[in-house]
Design goal:
alpha+beta, single chain, about 50% helix, four-stranded mixed β-sheet, 13 strands
């Protein structure tokens, strides 16, 4: 319940300070073991993964992950689906930004990036599908991904809308003909999975995949543009390799997935600290990425640090997790962010206005409330 509360940023900062003082795993006041060093994190995620219950952020029904064989199948198919689509040449960034803006042309934080990425990933999610499926996906993005996972101000409404949307998706999925070819989109992916999965189960998996592709990437895009504009990394002179460093630094300083949770399946130890069966372990990605023992000036936005990262920094950098539970689409997500970052930061000048200074933390670590206004500085034909 604690992690479902709004406004968690002060807690995250306090946990970072406590991790620095403890120098190793320590227990939060509500009993959860908190980890903020690379060796202990890798022990949980990789070396001693068999001592924890199976975990999957997206390939699960309720809190229960799909069987490992189905998760592996789903991961392979997800990578194949993503590889079949290349929006680089066809994506209309101008139209996407217009649609994401309000009537004053402002891009409101905690929502605009998700709307742009929803359009960017449209062929991947439901390519050429019946309008009913795409309408329900749009409804889910607005009423759940934005309203609940990011903003968190309309929990009751989203808890009513998610089952309704799931039922609608299940109805449409049930009407689809049997799949007889390779998956072309996420709809094909969930419909083609083996196992005794009902249409409602497959609809739930589709919703989770939409959250993973649209929600996490969209929030990171907002951070990328906001920080790029604030620190002067926008303009025609910003080369793609610089955008690549920007993406890495954004994911270091403000990792959208700010924690990785695991539940112990057996009694064991983590770097000498006893862990009981059934105990919850929290890996604080945000604290791991801000450790002064690993990063010089850890709270500063310094993309140049990625020109020559140290081995400790590489080991401590876990924006997509590690091991079996690692996000299978991480490579595609990074490429999408680099592409969208080039389209926006190289061809628009920006103006940022913040209503608050602190990030907004709920399921995702999002930018502060406020808005960004973008003005094109080069012709559409010069997009890079």
């Amino acid at each position: 319940m604690f992690l479902d509360r709004q406004g968690l940023w002060p807690h995250l900062r306090r946990w970072e300070d406590s991790a620095a003082e403890a120098g190793g795993p320590f227990r939060l006041r509500f009993g959860t073991l908190f980890i903020a060093d690379a060796d202990a994190a890798r022990e949980v995620l990789v070396d001693s993964a068999d001592k924890y219950l199976p975990q999957s952020g997206f390939f699960r029904l309720g809190p229960t992950p799909l069987p490992q064989t189905i998760r592996a199948e789903a991961s392979r198919e997800l990578i194949n689906v993503l590889a079949r689509h290349d929006p680089h040449a066809s994506f209309d960034i101008d139209a996407a930004l217009r649609e994401a803006g309000d009537r004053h042309g402002r891009l409101r934080h905690q929502r605009w990036g998700v709307r742009v990425v929803r359009r960017y990933f449209a062929p991947v999610i439901a390519h050429g599908r019946h309008s009913g499926i795409n309408s329900l996906v749009d409804d889910y993005v607005t009423s759940s991904v934005i309203a609940d996972d990011i903003v968190g101000h309309t929990v009751r409404r989203s808890h009513r809308s998610v089952p309704r949307i799931r039922a609608g998706l299940a109805h449409h999925l049930e009407q689809l003909p049997a799949q007889d070819a390779d998956a072309q989109d996420l709809v094909d992916l969930v419909m083609g999975l083996h196992g005794e999965l009902s249409p409602a189960d497959r609809a739930q998996l589709l919703q989770r995949l939409v959250l993973s592709t649209v929600g996490f990437t969209g929030v990171t895009l907002e951070w990328l543009v906001l920080l790029g504009v604030q620190y002067g990394y926008n303009g025609p002179a910003v080369r793609p390799e610089r955008i690549r460093s920007l993406v890495k630094e954004v994911l270091r300083l403000y990792p959208t997935a700010w924690r990785l949770a695991r539940v112990a399946a057996a009694d064991h130890e983590i770097t000498g600290v006893p862990v009981d069966e059934g105990e919850h372990v929290l890996i604080g990605t945000h604290a791991l990425h801000r450790s002064a023992a690993v990063w010089d000036e850890p709270l500063e936005f310094r993309p140049a640090r990625w020109e020559k990262p140290t081995e400790d920094q590489r080991r401590s950098y876990l924006p997509f997790g590690k091991g079996e539970g690692m996000c299978p689409a991480n490579g595609f997500a990074v490429k999408a962010l680099e592409h969208l970052g080039c389209l926006i930061l190289r061809h628009y000048r920006g103006d940022v206005r913040l209503r608050r200074r602190k990030p907004h933390v709920r399921t995702l670590l999002a930018p502060p409330a406020g808005w960004t206004r973008l003005t094109r500085t080069s012709q559409p034909g010069s997009q890079g």
